[in-house]
Design goal:
The complex is a heterodimer of chains A (231) and B (317).
Chain A: E1 7-12, E2 15-19, H1 26-43, E3 47-52, E4 56-61, H2 68-80, E5 93-100, H3 108-115, H4 119-128, E6 131-136, E7 143-146, E8 161-164, E9 168-172, E10 175-178, E11 183-185, E12 188-192, E13 213-218, H5 221-226
Helix pairs in contact in A: 1-2
Chain B: E1 3-9, E2 12-16, H1 36-45, E3 54-58, E4 62-66, E5 70-78, E6 81-83, E7 86-88, E8 92-96, E9 101-104, E10 109-117, E11 153-155, E12 166-167, E13 180-187, H2 196-204, E14 207-209, E15 217-221, E16 235-236, E17 241-243, E18 251-253, E19 260-261, E20 265-269, H3 271-278, E21 285-291, H4 293-309, E22 313-314
Parallel strand pairs in B: 13-21
Antiparallel strand pairs in B: 1-4, 1-11, 2-3, 3-10, 4-9, 5-8, 5-10, 6-7, 6-9, 12-22, 13-20, 14-15, 14-21, 15-18, 16-19, 17-18, 17-20
Classes of the chains: A alpha+beta (231), B alpha+beta (317).
């Protein structure tokens, strides 16, 4: 199913990058996850790392053990074995609880006002969609989820916060995410998720991986605290 | 446990092994030594594996006191080393006994030195690596990305008898004094977004290392390079990638780089040349030369041969 828009480019002495398309989609996310899995199975022993992202997969190999011709051949085989019929089903479905409120989401009210909606509507719309994990990066465990319904898409804050709390559920443009650790950030905060998004002690250390699907489910303050959330 | 006590941590001293690999998919960068060549010579002088944990000392100022019998070796930047106030040679191993005071001055040439100890420092890894990445809060002596702190003990094995002292042959020792580097580049990524004229400008110009260069990336100052595109969908960034943001000033992404990013990239610097780059101090100059990926693979293989075939020499004293 190697599609015409797929292309392979050199990235560096030990890296090739596959481009699957220039617009992220659930179908592309599924293809990237499948390709990564195939490559781990077929040339795992010469792979140093893989970096899946929105529309691409970076393949880092050991150039003392193989060369870019051999890796390209493995990539072509992997791409030819991709399947499309289960695109929509691929990836695990992960449900994340969120305490949406003014106290846990300081930008909820402003986002609702600028969208011409009530906060209840914003919360409902955020929960309606099933999101794809398009990429993980920026900080350990930071998963970029897309796409947010255009009605509640909101630009980044003009002045980023110096500290966004752990677990903050946020929106920037048509992306949403849960901050895995306290960090600076300019996304609009609408709630808090009590589930750890990154835990070095846990295995796996993240509840999601690229290609997975995520749904958010509202919980109330008492449930949030019972699940270990902190305000 | 026996080891080396940190009397003064110096400007910025980090425990590093060869790096943290296979975890980009959860957003973790590699870390590891900025000058891999100097790092692995330090370990070899101590009869260690190439991935044993050593201390990357930026600029200098580290002072240690030993509670044990061991060997140490310091390579990399020209940072004056004394043992009990006696000058001690770099690129050479030394015998250490309990009570010895190991003191580093400040870099005269180059900017990063590597202090290895026999058997490597025995520090608990996190995500399969000891490498300290402060930005991620991972690794190092406390596993949370903190640089060395005064009062800590850097655990290491006690030797019954120190090993004979060895020295790196002089022709294998880099000279960082000129504060300039010529680095080779494999073109790639969005190279087609850079016109021939832009590429010629890049490869014929001299760039200067800016003050805001660190383990994440080296920011260069020089002629503006303008790609035909502003940004791309965020994608994986390999070691040494040359990214060009809207201001046209290239950034070379290094060990602590972000794993994904959305600026156009021209290609990547050959890993063998990243050590030279990482040794430049602000104001140091960089010139680029394009090579093919085949030539890069040949150079990597030859370098591996060179390192493995070079013999250490008995030290003078």
């Amino acid at each position: 199913m190697s599609k015409p828009q797929q292309s392979i480019s050199i990235a560096g002495e030990n890296s090739l990058i596959i481009y699957f398309g220039d617009k992220p989609s659930a179908a592309i996310a599924s293809e990237i996850a499948q390709a990564a899995q195939r490559l781990r199975e077929t040339i795992g022993q010469v792979l140093i790392d893989l970096v899946p992202s929105y529309g691409s997969l970076l393949i880092i190999y050991n150039p003392l053990q193989t060369d870019h011709h051999a890796v390209r051949a493995a990539i072509r085989r992997a791409l030819s074995s991709l399947t499309s019929e289960d695109d929509q089903l691929a990836g695990r479905l992960v449900s994340l609880p969120v305490y949406y409120s003014a106290e846990s989401g300081p930008d909820l009210q402003a986002l609702a006002e600028s969208a011409g909606l009530t906060t209840e509507q914003v919360i409902a719309i955020h929960q309606q969609a099933e999101y794809r994990v398009y990429a993980i990066g920026f900080a350990p465990g930071f998963a970029y989820l897309g796409e947010v319904d255009p009605r509640i898409a909101a630009p980044r804050l003009a002045t980023p916060r110096t500290k966004v709390p752990r677990g903050a559920v946020a929106i920037a443009d048509r992306q949403t995410a849960v901050y895995p650790a306290p960090s600076p950030g300019g996304w609009n905060l609408i709630g808090l998720c009590p589930e750890p998004m990154f835990d070095p002690e846990a295995s796996p250390s993240m509840p999601v991986q690229v290609g997975d699907r995520v749904r958010f489910t509202a919980i109330d303050r008492a449930q949030f605290l019972a699940l270990g959330g902190e305000l | 446990m026996s080891g080396l006590i940190v009397i003064q941590p110096g400007i910025f001293s980090l425990a590093q092994d060869s790096g943290r690999f296979g975890l980009h998919s959860i957003g973790l960068t590699t870390g590891g030594p900025m000058d891999r060549n100097a790092f692995r010579w330090a370990n070899r002088l101590c009869d260690n594996s190439q991935s044993a944990t050593a201390i990357e000392v930026t600029v200098g100022g580290l002072v240690l006191e030993s509670t044990t019998t061991t060997n140490i070796a310091m390579t990399g930047a020209n940072i004056p080393l004394t043992i009990n106030q006696q000058a001690a040679a770099l690129w050479q191993s030394h015998k250490i006994i309990p009570g010895d005071r190991i003191e580093l001055g400040f870099a005269v040439a180059g900017s990063r030195g590597y202090l290895a100890v026999a058997g490597g420092f025995q520090i608990e890894p996190i995500f399969n690596s000891v490498s300290t990445v402060p930005r991620e809060g991972l690794g190092g002596t406390t596993q949370d990305g903190t640089p060395l702190q005064a009062g800590q003990i850097l655990p290491c094995q006690a030797l019954q008898h120190p090993l004979d002292c060895l020295s790196v042959p002089s022709q294998q020792r880099p000279d960082y004094a000129a504060n300039q580097a010529r680095v080779r580049v494999v073109l790639g990524y969005q190279q087609d977004a850079f016109s021939e004229i832009q590429k010629q400008l890049f490869f014929s110009s001299q760039y200067t290392v800016s003050d805001s260069s660190d383990r994440m990336g080296y920011r260069l100052k020089g002629p503006n390079i303008s790609p035909s595109i502003d940004g791309i969908l965020s994608e994986g960034i390999c070691l040494g990638a040359i990214q060009v943001p809207a201001d046209g000033q290239p950034i070379i992404l290094l060990n602590d780089r972000q794993t994904i990013g959305g600026y156009p990239k021209l290609g990547s610097v050959l890993s063998l040349d990243l050590g030279k780059l990482a040794q430049l101090m602000p104001g140091g100059t960089v010139q680029f030369e394009a090579i093919s990926v085949e030539r890069a693979h040949n150079l990597l293989a030859l370098d591996e041969q060179r390192f493995n075939n070079s013999q250490l020499e008995p030290a003078n004293k």
